[in-house]
Design a protein that fits this description.
239 residues; alpha+beta; 3-stranded antiparallel sheet; two-stranded parallel ribbon; 5 helices; 24% strand; elongated
């Protein structure tokens, strides 16, 4: 009997000592704190992936809207939806995107077509706290090309400074890319009209245009005198 009592007493003393022990508090506190740190890092990683997919979706929606705007006037609502779905799924091919969907709404009153896209992405880390997926949405609107005439003026710098640091090739590439995009948005000739204006210290409008009604010499005359045309190619100023 005494042995049994002694055994229970040793167990009691061990439990009392365990209750008062505090040597492992730092490890326990660090373990709990690590959960929030890991959760924050995981959320940043998963939402970064979702934002990347959202950007890809927006590009696909914009491209689809432009393509539909070229043919929207001649399609029914069902045909627009079918074409829009086909274009969107062809453009938006991110492998991690699930449940890719797009709805197409055409408004004949203001000649616009509206696209609303959605998809979801599986989380890689924050799924441990119950958030298994992140939903991503986007929208894009385009106006029917047959109702709108687009007028664009490109003022391109061709001064000497453009010869440095590859500026001129970059300008040429950017201008060509813009013209290609504008051309793809046009249905018929005249839908898009582009004017290219060289940016320099002087602009030669041609001697035959000196007296054109769209040129205003008033400020020049006030500062330098009047311009008098003496021939088709030359002229002089007088006070």
């Amino acid at each position: 009997m005494r042995k049994i009592i002694a055994c229970f007493q040793r167990i009691k003393n061990a439990l009392r000592a365990f209750r008062g022990a505090n040597a492992g508090n730092v490890a326990i506190t660090f373990a709990f704190a690590s959960l929030s740190v890991i959760g924050g890092v995981g959320a940043a990683v998963d939402y970064s992936r979702a934002n990347s997919m959202k950007a890809a979706m927006q590009n696909a929606l914009d491209a689809t809207a432009l393509m539909l705007a070229k043919e929207a006037a001649g399609l029914t609502a069902d045909e627009l939806q079918a074409h829009g779905t086909s274009y969107f799924l062809t453009q938006f091919t991110r492998p991690e995107a699930k449940n890719r969907q797009v709805t197409v709404v055409s408004n004949t009153a203001n000649s616009t077509v509206l696209l609303n896209g959605s998809a979801s992405i599986d989380t890689a880390i924050i799924g441990v706290i119950g958030m298994k997926t992140i939903s991503v949405t986007g929208s894009s609107t385009a106006t029917w090309a047959e109702r709108t005439r687009l007028r664009v003026a490109l003022v391109l710098d061709n001064t000497g400074s453009m010869a440095q640091s590859g500026k001129m090739p970059a300008l040429q590439t950017a201008a060509k890319n813009l013209l290609s995009r504008l051309n793809s948005a046009a249905t018929t000739n005249g839908d898009v009209y582009v004017s290219i204006i060289p940016f320099a210290k002087d602009v030669n409008v041609g001697a035959s245009n000196y007296n054109a009604n769209w040129i205003d010499w008033s400020l020049w005359d006030d500062a330098n005198g009047s311009w008098v045309t003496t021939s088709s190619c030359t002229g002089r100023w007088s006070r």
